[in-house]
Amino acid sequence: SGRWARAMAILREFEEKCGTPIAKLRQVADAMTVEMHAGLASEGGSKLKMIISYVDNLPTGDEKGLFYALDLGGTNFRVLRVQLGGKDKRVVKQEFEEVSIPPHLMVGSSDALFDYIAAALAKFVATEGEGLHVSPGRQRELGFTFSFPVRQSSIASGSLIKWTKGFSIEDAVGQDVVGELTKAMERIGLDMRVSALVNDTIGTLAGGRYYDQDVVAAVILGTGTNAAYVERAQSIPKWHGLLPKSGDMVINMEWGNFRSSHLPLTEYDQVLDAESLNPGEQIFEKIISGMYLGDIVRRVLCRMAEEADLFGDTVPPKLKIPFILRTPDMSAMHHDTSPDLRVVGSKLKDILDIPNTSLKTRKVVIELCDIVATRGARLSAAGILGILKKLGRDTMKEGDKQNSVIALDGGLYEHYTEFRTCLESTLKELLGAEVSDNIVIKHSNDGSGIGAALLAASHSQYL
Ligand code: ADP
Ligand code: MG
């Protein structure tokens, strides 16, 4: 029928606009490398902030003692403590607790958010068990993983540049987030020192390096997306400090804010961006990360309902509600292998109030999920290629046997199998078989929490 043809036309047009042929991915990777250079050359030189993290030493395995970490950067935050036993014993014990953030605190005041966090931390500290305690007379020390863009001013201080991922707390912008946390801890009488401020990518890099010295970069694919890597300090023109002894400096790219004319953007992406809390910003993140993928699918479905009556004569009202279709639900539909696509049918019914969908309609939904996930995964692979190019590790050198490991983490990477396998096969395709043998993508499960604790250890006031 004419309606079906119209629906197919919308689908095909969307597919075409989302296309990521290898040649385009190479352009994206090259643009990423160019922007990395620009961001390292001068402050404000690029959309990529290329933030100097002040982490010039990554964990070696010798770290010892009891350390805490706090991981804030999405819908949940986690508190964690680890007992480090040094080279042979490594992580002797590790305990954590996950606490969800009430939505009103994500858009309230800085004090309210940090008071809530400090209270949860104090409660966790109170559960410190037998044999787990800091040496007498010593203050507890914490690594703070704060996964929003921060202008770092030392290893343990930095001001918030802007919120992302649905947070919007105006009075915190420009403030030193370590100061905000420290004040909140003081208000409730919790005696703890923040000895390292990092974000999840740097935590993941540190956690990955603790177990594998070949780790050179870390990428997070979760609610948001970001990457960090180890740069030579002398290749950072905007760094005017002393050259660190190691010669290295970890760079927090903030790659979620990358954009390029080579990115395949559609009209749906443009509207999503315009209606977002941060229009014009985080464009790469908005086509790749878990916060947005489901909503892109919803937007295309909505158009198909409006212009091609995909779900009958009226547009299902719930289809108009932003973010109602979450990426975990999208991935559940995408992975549906039942002959009648029963998962797709029940998700459409339960989430969007659309009952009795035909098999043919369900297939369209899966195809849409595939288009959106494939674009995100392939662009992520292109971003990783950009980093490898910057490091000169995208080609084989004569007699070169060095391995490069990229630590990956985040709920999207961990749970969205189609996304993960597409990312990995695309990177292989981009690198070619020979180079691929020396590049390893490694899931660094919860590297970020333990990484922050490790960095607290290596930046302890008692060293
Ligand atoms: P955060 O990024 O908030 O710190 P995570 O790394 O755990 O936390 O990532 C959580 C995000 O991962 C969710 O917001 C969601 O977008 C995505 N995600 C979680 N589970 C799945 C899933 N099963 N399929 C696809 N995406 C998922
Ligand atoms: Mg996280």
Automatic annotation (TrEMBL):
SUPFAM superfamilies: Actin-like ATPase domain
InterPro entries recorded: ATPase_NBD, Hexokinase, Hexokinase_C, Hexokinase_N
Membrane topology, as annotated: Single-pass membrane protein
Record-level GO cellular component terms: mitochondrial outer membrane
Cross-referenced CDD domains: ASKHA_NBD_HK_plant
Residue ranges constituting the Hexokinase N-terminal domain according to the UniProt record: 11-210
Pfam families: Hexokinase_1 (PF00349), Hexokinase_2 (PF03727)
EC number: 2.7.1.-
Top EC class of this enzyme: transferase
Segments forming domain Hexokinase C-terminal: 217-457
One annotated GO biological process: intracellular glucose homeostasis
Location(s), subcellular: Mitochondrion outer membrane
Pathway assignment: Carbohydrate metabolism; hexose metabolism; Carbohydrate degradation; glycolysis; D-glyceraldehyde 3-phosphate and glycerone phosphate from D-glucose: step 1/4
Reactions this protein catalyses: D-fructose + ATP = D-fructose 6-phosphate + ADP + H(+); a D-hexose + ATP = a D-hexose 6-phosphate + ADP + H(+)
One term of GO molecular function: fructokinase activity
Sorted UniProt keywords: ATP-binding, Glycolysis, Kinase, Membrane, Mitochondrion, Mitochondrion outer membrane, Nucleotide-binding, Transferase
PANTHER family: HEXOKINASE, HEXOKINASE TYPE 1-RELATED
Similarity remark: Belongs to the hexokinase family.
Protein name as it appears in the record: Phosphotransferase
Organism: Vitis vinifera
